[in-house]
C-alpha cells in the first residue's frame, strides 16, 4: 500500500467502500515533460557542426537552432564516471566510479558500486509517475556483477528503469554487439549482411518502448536515456556514411585545428581572443608517450591517407548515429510530443586519445598490452569501419576534435572535460538558437531534470539518508542572457592521477598526465589559469598569483577528502609491463575454486571475460566431455572474437583448437581427426614456459583426445584481455563475432552432445584429462 486507505471496510462488502487511489502509483504533475537524454561517447567540442566542426550532425543542428548550445559544460574526462553522475547527480568518486567499471579497485571511490545513499534519478522519476527507459551503453554495472548468476541489484531495472536494452561495459562491436535486455543477455536480432548496425537497433528499441507507453498510458510522461556506442571505438559505420567524408580531413589535424577555431569563435562558442594551445603541450616525462601526437608533416603519404580515412570513418559513425536519433525526434514531432520533451544532447568526455600516435585497426591490442603494427594497419586501411576491423583514430584527431584545448579524454585539462551540450525544450525555453556561457558540469544534469519535472529530491530514500546532490540546476540558464553569471561555484577533477579544480572562474591543474606512471604526487607541479578570460588554458599564471594557486590546491584536497578521491592511481598500464601487471592484480578477478577448475555447460548464458576462467598469462588446461556421432560439428567452446580469442571446434571431420592472438594473422591452429562415435574427452594444455617482449605467454600447446596426445605446437597467449568487454565465453556456440575464420556466426554444435567443459588453471602438470573431468564431476 503506497498511500493511506481512505475507503471504508465493514463486515459485508456491500456496506464497504473501496479506494483504488491508495494502491495505484503516483501520477506525474499535469503538463510534466518527457525527458530524452542522448549521451554520446568520446567527442570533443570541436568535432560537431553545431560547434563549427566538420562532422555533420543534422539532428543536433536542428535542436540547437531551436534550443540552447552550451559553451562551458564539463564532464569527468572518462565515460563510466561521467555516466554515474547522470545516474545520481553526485560526483563520480562518491558513486564509487573514479574510473571505468572494468578497472575498478577495492577502494571506496574506486569500487564501481553506487551506494544506497546515492539514489538514482530514475527511482525518483518512476516513483513520481514517469516511465523510465535505458537504451544503449551501460557502463555502470559493477564488474563483479556482469554474470548471469550475479546479483542484479546494480543492473538498470534495479536502478529504477522499467526497461533496458543495450550492452554492458565500455564498448561493443557495432556489427556484432554483446547485447542484454532487462536482466539477461540476448543475441542480436539479425546480422550485418541483413542491414544490422547497433545504432539502428537501439533507435528501433527506443521507439518501441515509447510507443508501448503511449498506446496504453497516453498521458504518462517518460524518461529515456539513449546511449549509443558512438563515438567510442570501434568506429563502425555503413560505407555510404563514411564515403560522405572522403577527402574532408586530408589537410591533417593541425590544419583542422587552425580551421575550426575561427568557426567556433564566429558561432559565439569561444571568446574572440581565444588562443590555440600547442599540439603536444606537456613536457616529456609528465605524460604517457602513447598520448603523443605525430606532426602531420612527419607522416609519409600512406600514413596521411590512412589517418585521414580513420577520421572519415569516425565522422561517418557519428553522423549515422545522429540520423538514428533523428528518427526518434521525427517520431516525437509527428506524435505531438516534441514540444514538451526536454531533450539533452551531449557527450560524456573529450575525444579519445586511446588510439595511440598511429591509430589502430584493433583497439583490443591496447587492452592486451600489445603494440600496434603500422604495416598491419596499412594493409587494412580499406576495411576500416567494416566488420573486419576494430578501429580507432590516432591521437592527432583527438587533439583536433578537442580544439582549442590541451589534450583529450582522460586529462583534466579542458580537452578531456569540456564537451558539447545542446538543450531543446520548446515549452520550457523561450530562447531559440542562443549560446549559454554559464559554467556547468555533468553533476548538474540530474538537478536540472528534477527541477524541470517538478520532482523534489528526498532527504531519505528507502530508509537511507541521502548524500546531497553535488550539482546545481541549470534551469536558471534557460531564461538567462548568454553572459549571466553561473550559479555553480566549485568543481573538482581527478582522473588516473591527474588533478584539477575550478573555482569561481579560476582553475588549477597538475602537470601530471593520467596513467603516466610518475607517482610522487607530493611534488606535482601545478598550473593556474583564469578561465573566465582564458578559456583554452593557454596562459599559466602560477608565478603571478601564487596565493590563488595555494588556495585552489588546498580546496582540491578538501574536495578530495569529502568525495572519496584518494588514493591516487596513475599506474602506466600501456607501455609499462610492470605497472600493467600491478594494475591487473588490483582488478576484480572471479575467485577461482580451490581446485583451480571451472565447469561450464551448454545452453547457458555468455560468461563475461572478467568473470570467466582466466587463461591470460598463465598455464591452463581445458577438457570437454562430448558424445560424438558421424554428424558432429560446431563450436564446443568459444571465447573472444576475430580480434582476439580462442575456440575448440569440430569441422569437416577435424577437431581444431584455435588461438587467435589479438587478430594478428595467422591464427595458431592445431588439429586432429575427429574420433569415432561415442563418449570422448577432447582437451588442450598450454604450458607457459616464458614471456615474450611484451609479456605475452609463450610455450607449447598440446591437443589431446582421451589419453592420447594428437598434436603440439608453440603458441603465444595474451597477457591482459581479449577485449575491454563483451565477447565472453560460450559453450556449444560462438555468441557473436566468430573467433576463427574456420566458421561463421554462431556455428552451434550439432550432431552430438556436449556434457561439460572444464577449464583448469591450477599449477599442476597435465596428467590425464579424464581424471580431471571425473574429479570435476564429483564436485559438481
From TrEMBL:
InterPro entries, per database record: Alkaline_phosphatase_core_sf, Sulfatase, Sulfatase_CS, Sulfatase_N
Highest taxon listed in the record's lineage: Bacteria
Keywords, alphabetical: Calcium, Hydrolase, Metal-binding
Pfam families: Sulfatase (PF00884)
Residues annotated as domain Sulfatase N-terminal: 33-455
Listed PANTHER family: ARYLSULFATASE FAMILY MEMBER, BLL2667 PROTEIN
Family named by the database record: Belongs to the sulfatase family.
Protein name: Arylsulfatase
The species this protein was found in: Agromyces humatus
Record lineage: Bacteria, Bacillati, Actinomycetota, Actinomycetes, Micrococcales
